[in-house]
Structures are given as C-alpha cells and as structure tokens.
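[step 3/7] inverse_fold.run input=structure_tokens len=215
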C-alpha cells in the first residue's frame, strides 16, 4: 500500500488526472494500491446521478463532472478527502462488499473519536444522530451527514472515494442539495464538539484501514 498526503489545497482537475494515472498503473501492475489524502479549494462535484435541480447556487463555486457514482457533493478546506485506488479484482470482484467496506472504514475511523456513526437504508453516506438539536417534525431524532462516499470502478480498479467533514465551512453546503437529500443536514467533527485536526483523522484512517480491507 502507498499512502500519500498532499499539503495545501489540491486543484480538482489535477486530482482527477493523478487518480487516472495511479489507477492505470495499478491495472498494469506498475503502481501499488494507493490511498491519497487531500483537501480541495471550495467546489461542487456532480456524480453520475446528479439532478440539476439539486444545484441550488450554480455560480457560487466551480462545478465539476466527477464521473463517480452519486449526486452533488461539496469539497473544500477543512474536509479530508480520501481517494482510494484499490484492485477490487484481487479483493473478490464484489462491488457491494467494497462499498460496504468503505462505509465500515469511515465508521471505524470515527469510532476512534468515540463517534457513533451509521449508515441508513436509502441514504448515501455516513450519519450521526443529533439529540442535542431540535427533533424532526415527526418527533424523530435529527440525523446529520458527517461523511460522503462515491466511487468509480474501471476494469476493477477503484478510484474516487470518501470525504469526512473535519472543520469545513458548513454554509458552503447550502449551494447544493447534498447527495439529493433534503430532509437532513450536514455536520462536521468540530460541529459535533470535537477538537479534531486533519492529522488526527489521517491517523485514524490509516490505523483502521487494515481492519476493514483485510483482503
């Protein structure tokens, strides 16, 4: 495994190009499997299922076609993006299992900070309950999204990956309907009251990776 951490803000087109190069190297067996940790300048990305009505403020930030699964997502400073380039063919050729592993990885990493995060049927991403906030109109506990997941496979090599909200400007999500979900909000680790740094999150991701992606 190759772990890369890029300092500063990585332009999104540069990230797309580099991911393609790494994925091609993995297919050719000339580059090791790689997790690449980055931050981006503020931008929106459109997945293959994006609906134009969910782009609320199209002029706020640049909008990029991501060619990954999913809908609209925000990336920006204070958010850890983990691009995951793995040989899924060598890991069983099971796409559903791979997506579940990505979810489990985020949940395990957040558990390092005593955060109970969960997935929800019919909703993309990883969620936390917010009993500290006003309940929903039906009296149920509010839930906010803390991490997003969107992957692409080409010839059984994955790219794109996940994003965890560490300390982004949460108002930047107002320009889209994140992942097409209007009924729930977005949160971050700092918004949850945790003084967590990007480096803390990187350590947690690396420490829990092998427990989830065992083969």
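[step 3/7] decode complete -> sequence:
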């Amino acid at each position: 495994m190759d772990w890369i951490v890029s300092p500063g803000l990585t332009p999104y087109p540069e990230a797309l190009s580099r991911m393609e190069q790494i994925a091609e190297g993995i297919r050719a067996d000339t580059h090791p499997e790689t997790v690449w940790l980055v931050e981006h300048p503020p931008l929106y990305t459109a997945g293959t299922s994006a609906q134009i009505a969910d782009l609320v403020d199209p002029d706020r930030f640049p909008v990029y076609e991501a060619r990954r699964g999913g809908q609209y997502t925000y990336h920006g400073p204070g958010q850890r993006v983990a691009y995951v380039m793995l040989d899924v063919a060598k890991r069983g050729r099971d796409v559903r299992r791979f997506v579940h592993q990505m979810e489990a990885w985020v949940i395990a990493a957040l558990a390092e900070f005593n955060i109970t995060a969960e997935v929800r049927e019919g909703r993309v991403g990883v969620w936390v309950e917010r009993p500290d906030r006003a309940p929903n109109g039906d009296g149920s506990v509010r839930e906010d999204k803390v991490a997003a997941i969107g992957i692409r496979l080409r010839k059984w090599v994955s790219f794109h990956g996940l994003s965890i909200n560490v300390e982004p400007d949460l108002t930047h999500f107002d320009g889209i309907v994140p992942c097409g979900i209007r009924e729930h909000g977005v949160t971050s680790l700092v918004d949850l009251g945790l003084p967590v740094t990007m480096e803390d999150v990187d350590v947690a991701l690396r420490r829990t990776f092998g427990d989830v992606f065992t083969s």
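[step 4/7] annotate
The two ends are 12 Å apart (CA to CA).
The mean pLDDT is 93.
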